[in-house]
């Protein structure tokens, strides 16, 4: 589903060169729930951003759902992000001027479909995360956990095959964090491939596979459970 | 999608009342100035009462006489004799009306002096213009041939001279400069901004003090040449130029010997421009360049300012750009979003400007600063203003939108 080969990421300023990722090779299969761990600044988020086509590697190739993406133009990359990927960010990144329902509809704005279809799909996604009673609310009227559930609804509304979550429980208390992880587990059971960056060992242990990074290098890749949702 | 953009634009407007005020103030003030200016230009140069046939009229208003060394020149209105010989004889026009340029006289009522703007005209003057007669009728060739001392007055003069009498004033007499004239018609007056038709009292050209008997080419007269159809205008100009080329040269007038005579039959705007720029070939270009530069100044400076305001307003929405891009918005869709938002905001400014312009124009019309002012926001002015709105929206929106839509997702999300 996601194949990274010889990925290297270098950040350059006029005086300094920082190697954020060094020769990373990862193959994530369909239906896997993978967690990525490592100390702060080890390149976890950079790796996730490269998988999500939010950032470009300095070297190496990225393959998403069978397509190699190194030569894609803006429009093709946008389509791939829209159709195949869903993002959940640590700080939610909801648009404060839009209602919960409008926020969830965002991915659908960039594909074909009527306003009515968009509305129905967004309502369905919000029901799935248990927020159908908050559709007309605005982000500032929600708790952290509710905001993250809206963000999850937005990530799944377009029914992407891959969900990328960057510390989705990082800003939440443990009860709320558990709730969010349960939602992600359910989504995984329904067939979504999920890659999650986390600092929380307990959370990571509830996924199928754990990849550890240190100083931009992949140090371990351990399978925690072989019980995949939809096979290989 | 567009509804979504407009919804966001509205929220953005409400989010920062100060930015919104600055933006809308800039847009609406500029557009108001433009609209009032356009309306005023339309008032000056458009086809309006009593020159409702201006679009198919040519004006012969002045003549220039020059000697060969081009050191000496005389310029001014033409004589009645010249117009009778060279304009009245034209075959192509439908009719040629002759009148004097400006004149002044006094009349007294109950010891109070009323200053009058006078015009001496022939009968065709009433044909080439479309004055509305509230009472009576214009004088005709017969009245003139009979040497009748008749006048047409405006409703304003009627009100001043006869006060608010309800009975007809036709047949009553008015004493102007110690001569009694019989009132033959009362017209709805015209604004002073239409000098070729404006007046308080209109005499037949044969009335005393009209000076129509002058033998020279120059005098105090002008003509309005009415074409049967707009398309005849070039043919009439050609015919007139050909007639003028037969003026015997060199000639002498008031002791000045001239070898060159320049006199043109121009449409109203051209006639106006020709008072400032002599050269017939380049004057239009110069005039439009000047107008264009003024418009650019009026529009350009606020637009640059708006770009600034917009850049900072869009910059603080970097995170939104990041989110939209993450979920599949191509750069072009974002570019459109910001352009549509900007156009929406500009149109709100446009509507405010329309309201403001309407109020200002009403104020000008009712204040009496210009008698008989009839400034309007007509469809043309409105269309021009909306066009300007669009240019504004694009000018002030495209640049920041382009910059922002190309922002890297990762940078946008971190902002």
The ordered string of helix (H) and strand (E) elements of chain A is: EEEHEEHEHHHEHEHEE
The helix/strand class of chain A is alpha/beta
Q: By helix and strand content of chain B, what is the structural category?
A: alpha+beta
Structural domain count of chain A:
1
Q: Would you identify the CATH H-level superfamily of chain A?
A: P-loop containing nucleotide triphosphate hydrolases
For the largest beta-sheet of chain A, the strand count, sense and barrel status come to: 6 strands, mixed
Would you kindly provide a written description of the structure presented here, covering whatever features stand out?
The complex is a heterodimer of chains A (232) and B (415). Chain A has a single domain (2-223), classed as P-loop containing nucleotide triphosphate hydrolases (Rossmann fold), CATH 3.40.50. Chain A is 33% helix and 27% strand. Chain A is built from seven helices and ten strands. In chain A, helix 6 links the parallel strand 7 and strand 8 (193-197). Chain A is globular. By secondary structure, chain B is of the alpha+beta class. Chain B has two domains: 2-47 and 285-414, no CATH class; 63-274, no CATH class. Chain B has helices at 2-15, 17-45, 80-86, 125-128, 141-145, 155-162, 233-244, 268-274, 283-315, 318-326, 331-367, 379-405, 409-414, and strands at 57-60, 63-66, 73-76, 95-100, 104-109, 112-121, 133-136, 150-154, 173-176, 179-187, 201-204, 221-226, 251-253, 256-258, 260-263. In chain B, the strands form four sheets. In chain B, strands 5, 6, 7, 8, 9, 10 and 11 form a seven-stranded mixed sheet that branches. Chain B has a three-stranded antiparallel sheet with strand order 1-12-4. Chain B starts with a helix and ends with a helix. The mean pLDDT of chain B is 87. At the A-B interface, helix 2 and helix 3 of A face helix 1, helix 10, helix 11 and helix 13 of B.
